[in-house]
Each structure stands twice: as structure tokens, then as C-alpha cells.
Amino acid sequence: MPTGLTWILLILLAITASQAANPSHLVRNLPGQPQVQFKQYAGHLVVNASAQRAYFYWFFEADHQNQTSQPLALWLSGGPGCSSVGAGAFGEIGPFSVDISGTKLEKRRDAWNKAANLIFLESPHGTGFSYTNTTSDYTIYNDEMTASDNLQFLLEWFRNFPEYSKNEFYLLGESYSGHYIPTLAMKILENNANGKNIINLKGFSLGNAWTDPAHDMRGDVEFYYSHSLIPEQTYNELIQNCDFSTMRPILGGSMNPNCQAASAITNRLISGLSHYNIYKPPCKNGSSITSQSLHTNMLVNAYNPCDDKTESYLNQRSVQASLNLASSGNSTNSWKLCNAKASEYYQASDIIVSMLPLYKSLIQKKLRIWIYSGDADGVVSTLSTRSWIKELNLTSQTPWFAWSHKDKVAGWSQAYNGLTFLTVLGAGHMVPQDKPQQALSLFEHFLKGKVPPAN
């Protein structure tokens, strides 16, 4: 971790950023990278000087002839504690994926930087290459701290890249970003109300977002039953005996015995499936992704545990040097896809808090809000999301309709006053990974503020 002179230099770089992209963060000679026309920047930015917390980001310019005028978007992966670089950039929407050898990069045909300039932020501290020099921070994680640090990162980033301050800005993510993004959006609006360092936030888009446990957990049970994964008796036992809103195992409490028994049956029956897409085979390497229980399955390792090639690539010293990590002064830059400690120590009462009051406030702010859902996800199911959207009691602007991509049904959608909802047919928890073409089309329509065409 940076100390002494190295830490002072990090702060000075942030203070003295000029009216152009920070040249010290330019990514040069990235090992195994195919030739591209766009630039990349990566490095640490200080989010809390007193605690010496610094977040790692990777920024890709838009692969577009009018790059400077394209929107700017920040992607946050969930977990809590899973890397936006590993899961978001390499696993889903970035311009590169890691080849099977773990040493080279391949171009992604349906990369989202074809439509926007993209920032991938590793948040909170301890995620990926992000760190803190305050040891006690590694046992303190909560939504308020994460949102505050994410806002501070953005303020620092725009100081380093002031040429993007007028671009339309959007927030993107999935899973536990269902907390990260609404809380950050509100922080941005509160910051903008001060009239200084205004961030041009226009809206956000979330996929299979953890939002409200009463809806999310019950919706998963409905999903299991409607897909004939559990019998009617078990379904009835779960509905009648489980208090989904409190998620007692998360809070360290005990479940109703009847709920516990029905949950055990459910966990046994679905143990042979990937919870993240029930139509895909589970990982066979013993990872916890296949052993997550009904009451904890949205936590920890919410990404492909069989994908160790990204970890191999990012732990190469030559790669880390190209990403400007050597200058951080940290000689032990060990990267993992997910940090289990971030999830373990994340404040339990925050994990179970409902985001619906925040949504009601954000909708009043006239932001563009799109919520999409892979309909094969058993972690935050489509039924879960439809349930909490219904509770918002929004006025419909369109009827429920099938939207299309290349003249084929890609999912279903309904637009409301203040929010647009879309499903993605056959996709799981990580929609862009399962349905890359449809996901890019959805993203492009989101940026335009126009629902995809009806089938």
C-alpha cells in the first residue's frame, strides 16, 4: 500500500490535473492487447485522504468516430465486493475479454464502448486493486460509506478528465449495484444542489438489481415454483412460514423451523443448477456459487467462478505495470474477482434495507431509469423485480409488449411514468454475458431514451 512520498505524489497528481486527460494514467503497451483506435486510462484516485483510501478505475474511450461527444457511463458490479474490471469489463461489456490461455486479450464484438465512454470502478475498498491504508476499514462496509467514496471518486475523476464534464453521464450496474447506484445517484444530486462541481447525471440502468428483500426473496420462491424446480407443498411452506423481509440468517438470527425445513428442501432441489442462469451448467470446481442457500444466494461471488483466466491475466506484473499499478507503491497487488471479506463485513441492516423509498425520490427528479431483468436468473428473478416495480404504483405509458432485436423477440417491456422495465429472454443474472447483442441494443436504446421496437 502507498506510504510516504508515494502517497503524497498520488494526492498531488489529483490536485494538479490540468484541462486534459491525466497523462500519467494512460495505459501503454498492455500485454496481449489487439490493436485498437481508442485510448485507455487506469490507475488509483484518492477517495479519502485521511484514511488513505484509493479506488482503482479503468477508463475506455468510446470506439466511435465522434468519441468526445459520446455519453459517459460508470459501471459498478455488485457482490458486495466483486470487481467491475473483472466482472463488468472483461466478463460482460468492456472492449476486451481474456483468452483461454489467460495471457492475451480478444476484442469483444458487442462492447458497450461502441456507444459510450466507459469507466469501470472497483468499489468498495478491498475490491480488486482498490485499497485503504487504514486497517480497520477492512471490517467496515456499508451503503453510506460506499456511496460517499464513489461520489468522491467521481469528483476526483472529473478533475483529472475535465473535458468530459459536459457529456451526458449515466450510471450502470447489476446485482448489489441495486444499492450502489440509487444511493450514488442521490449523492450526485445532493452534490449538484450545491452548485459546484456539477455532474451531468441523466439517469441510470440496472440489471437484475437487488432492491427489496421482501420482494426479491419471495420472487425467487415464485420463480422456483413457476419453473417446476420445487413442489407445491414446499412452495406453500416457504410462502406461509418465511419472513423474507428480515432475511434472518443475514442478521445472525434463526429462521422459523418450518421455513428452515422448506428452505433445506429447496436448496437440495436446486443445488445442481447454476442459480445465475438455471439453463446453464453449474461450475464444477467446488466454488460456493453452486452452494449458496436460498437466503444468501445474492451475496459473494455473484459472478462466474469457473473464470480463472481473468485472475491469471490481471496478476501478471507486466499487466499491472501497464495499468500504472507499479507507481502506487504497492508491491503486493494481488487481484481476485470477488473479495469475500467485503460481503462478510458489509452492514447487514443495509443489505436488507428497501431501496423503494429512494426510487420514489429519484423518480421525482426526472432521471431516466431503466430496469432490465434476465428471465433465467434465480438470484434476483424477473418476478422479484416485477413485484417491487408494482409496489411503486406508477402510471403505465405503454402496454406490456414484446421487444425485438433483428426482428426476433428479445424480451418483454413496459414503460411507466418515470421508469422503463425490460426482460431479456434466456439471459441470467449477467445479461450482457448471456445475450451480448440484445444487451448492447438495449443499452443503445437506453442512451437514446427510446424503448426498443416491438416485435
Automatic annotation (TrEMBL):
GO terms for molecular function: serine-type carboxypeptidase activity. InterPro entries: AB_hydrolase_fold (IPR029058), Peptidase_S10 (IPR001563), Ser_caboxypep_his_AS (IPR033124). PANTHER family: CARBOXYPEPTIDASE (PTHR11802:SF489), SERINE PROTEASE FAMILY S10 SERINE CARBOXYPEPTIDASE (PTHR11802). It comes from the Eukaryota. It comes from Selaginella moellendorffii. This is Serine carboxypeptidase-like enzyme. Residues 1-20 form the signal peptide. Belongs to the peptidase S10 family. Keywords: Carboxypeptidase, Glycoprotein, Hydrolase, Protease, Signal. One of its GO terms (biological process) is proteolysis.
